[in-house]
């Protein structure tokens, strides 16, 4: 599916609610993991559109530094 992005250009992504064709071989069977989907025919890996980089420990709202503890 073509979804242009102004900063990155064209990005291939796997969408769970659509028929996805492999950019390498055109196949439509996928092995879906947590972050990527892999083509069952040629093993091309495509990132999941719904896989966000969120979770415990990735981002901190309040960063504590040794200087702020001394005050």
UniProtKB/TrEMBL annotation:
This is Uncharacterized protein.
């Amino acid at each position: 599916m073509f979804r242009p992005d102004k900063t990155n250009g064209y990005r291939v992504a796997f969408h769970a609610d659509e028929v996805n064709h492999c950019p390498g071989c055109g196949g439509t069977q996928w092995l879906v993991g947590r972050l990527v989907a892999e083509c069952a025919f040629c093993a091309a890996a495509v990132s999941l559109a719904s896989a966000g980089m969120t979770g415990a420990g990735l981002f901190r709202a309040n960063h504590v530094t040794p200087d702020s503890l001394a005050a």
